[in-house]
Each structure stands twice: as C-alpha cells, then as structure tokens.
C-alpha cells in the first residue's frame, strides 16, 4: 500500500452530519411551530416510542481496549482496531441523528411535532398553512391517508434552502411514520446537499427503524461516505442492524476498483452492552449479497491487499523462507536452525492466498520470543490481519475479540442471527431518497 491515503483505514464518517442538521434550524431564523402558543387540550398523536437507541458497544466514538480513548491508546496504529473504531464512530453519528439531545429526530418529535395543536389543526379545512417571503409552513390532517398527520417546513432563501417533512399515523403508543430532512447548503464544504429519511414503526412486540442518508460529495477525500442505509430492529432489548455506506473515492484495495461499501450486520444486547458484528468491504458496483462476508469479507479483502502490497514485494530470500513455512508447515525458527530443510523457490510465495497468510501468521506466533524488540514490533504489526476474522465482538470497552469462538460471556449474543436483510452495495451507491 504505497501511500498514507491508501493505507489509512481510519475511514471517517462525515463528522458534520449532525452539525448540518442543527445548522439549518439555527440559521433559518424562523420557528417551525407557529401555533406553539395554542396547545390547550392538545392530543397525544405521536411519541418517540418507536425510535431505537444503539448501545455504546455498537455506537461509540471513543472506546478502545481497556477503556482507553483513541488519542491515548498505545494501540492507536492497530489497523484492525482502526477499522472497528470507524464502524463504531459511524454508528455513533447515525445514532446521534436519531437520538441526540438537540435537533435529532427524537428532539424534533418531542419538542415540535408532538406539541403542535393537532386538535385545532384537525378541524381546519385544508389544514394550517402559513407563508412569508422565505418561509412556508403546513400542518395538515387528512383522514383518507394511511399516515393522516403531515407537517412541512420550507426555508426558501436561494442558496440556503432547507426542507423538513414528517408524516405519521397519530398513535402515541404505536407510532408509525417518517421524518425527512433536506439541506441545500450543509456546513461541510465537501458536500453540495444532504438528504435524510428516517422511517419508524412500533407495535406490541417490536420496533423497526430505517435510516437513509444521501449527500452529494464534491471533492475526493479518499474516505468520505456519500450514502448510508441502516435497517434497525429491536425486540426484548436485542437490536439487529444491517448497515452499509458508500465511499466513492476509496481505492487501492482491489485492482482497478474505486468505490467501496462498508457493509455489515450486527446483533447487540442492550442490557449486557455487547455486540457481534460481521463486516465486509465489497466494491460499490457489486449487485448481489452472496459474497458480502466471504469473497468480500473484511478478512479476505485486507488479506489480499496485504499480500499484494507487502508479501509480493519481499526479497527472494524472504520469499523462500515464507513459502517453505506456509507450504511445508515449518516455523521460521525451524527453517533458520535446521540446515536439512530444502527451501522452496521464491516464486512459490507469489501463490499465497489469504488462508495461507493467516496460517503462516498463526504458525509463527511463537517466534516473538526469539526476536529483538525492533523485530518483535515489526512482526506484531503483521498480526492485525488475524484480528479481522469474523465475527467481531464488542463490549462497552470496545474490541473484545474475534473469530468463531466467542470470548467469555459472549456465547448468548453470538448465538443470535441478525434478522435484517442484507444490503446490496450497488443499491446503496445509487441511493435515491423519495417521500410523498
């Protein structure tokens, strides 16, 4: 991997995502509740009961092993944990969009939509409509619609336009509906516009929440995400998540490929604050789901990168030792101390697969005891590949382990299969958000 851009796995979500949502209200200069002074007898027509809050084991921007933060962790260059930290960070910002203290979907419902005087609005033919030079407001009740309650707020100043729409069924106990945001001029100058659609539903047994985000990216930053889809489901304290984000400029992973989707499924126990994640990184043009966690699983993807950029650039002597080790099951120490072992030709190393790489690294773990501190550091730097094997386990402290054998205490959550549908990368790439 020849450049920092191509080796940096700390792929960042657009950190201004929530800030942009906040900014469009603060800069709009108008109230979205012109009837707020008339709330007497207001019926309970919507609540936040359908919203799902991801636990910190699944959505946290700071956690590291043993609770150390990102800046202070001695493992801050651990590539595997950088990848996992990115996923937790991305989930965190989506969770803030839904459940944050201010200008989130939760805040919007509780502080504005629920407080509109719907008992008055329901009696108005055509609903309540207000206009000014740069502002349009609607609050409408239409009993013939599946979601009869509807609000629309538009700020129309050219170059700073934003829109807020919401529609819901009128039940505070079992709410169903959606909230939509459009911002024409986000605070982040790397993007041209931002659309967000959050759909929600709650019944007697479960809650379901879908999030779609589409932002028009203007510049090549290498790691910025353009579109997001999150499918969430919660029942009895267990959260199921299927998520995918499209990164249009991410490259140098597979040959001649630019644009990938971080794609993952997760199951989280909100009571024990534990999560289990399966992660893939397919090309954004992949139109299926069959190979998401095999051919395009995170282990296979980065294993291939490591082989292409590191293993294949070794000198011939190193390749001979490497090939003899993984093909004939000799440790490096045995090869270096047993003169009867015949070394394989260096060309044999060029056929190394990801499975061969993992086997080689595991076979030679014990060599650490015989290496100098400098050599040990170099070899440990290779072992991050082993930490990519799926699934991956997280507690509130962060990364807890990975592989088919769950860490102590994770057996119960590891046995639960995610019930959300897998997301097709091409559909995430070509996301178009539509509302009525």
> How far from one another are the termini?
46 Å
Side by side, the strands of the main sheet go 1-2-3-4-5-6-7-8-9-10-11-12-13
Structural class: alpha+beta
Query: How many β-strand stretches?
Result: 13
- Characterize the main sheet: 13 strands, antiparallel
Task: Specify the number of helices.
Answer: 12
- pLDDT < 50 stretches: 1-19, 65-76
What are its keywords?
single chain, 436 residues, alpha+beta, 13-stranded antiparallel sheet, 12 helices, 24% helix, 25% strand, disordered N terminus
Can you describe this structure?
Strands 1-2-3-4-5-6-7-8-9-10-11-12-13 form a 13-stranded antiparallel β-sheet. 39% of the residues are buried. With 436 residues, it is α+β, with helices and mostly antiparallel strands. The N terminus is likely disordered. The chain is 24% helix and 25% strand. Strand 1 and strand 2 form a beta hairpin. It is built from twelve helices and 13 strands.
Produce a short descriptive summary.
With 436 residues, the protein is an alpha+beta fold. It has helices at residues 4-7, 17-26, 79-99, 105-111, 118-121, 298-309, 316-328, 332-337, 354-363, 373-380, 411-414, 425-429, and strands at 128-131, 135-141, 149-155, 162-168, 176-183, 191-202, 207-217, 227-235, 238-251, 258-269, 274-280, 392-395, 398-402.
List the helices and strands and how they pair.
Elements: H1 4-7, H2 17-26, H3 79-99, H4 105-111, H5 118-121, E1 128-131, E2 135-141, E3 149-155, E4 162-168, E5 176-183, E6 191-202, E7 207-217, E8 227-235, E9 238-251, E10 258-269, E11 274-280, H6 298-309, H7 316-328, H8 332-337, H9 354-363, H10 373-380, E12 392-395, E13 398-402, H11 411-414, H12 425-429
Antiparallel strand pairs: 1-2, 2-3, 3-4, 4-5, 5-6, 6-7, 7-8, 8-9, 9-10, 10-11, 11-12, 12-13
Helix pairs in contact: 6-9, 7-9
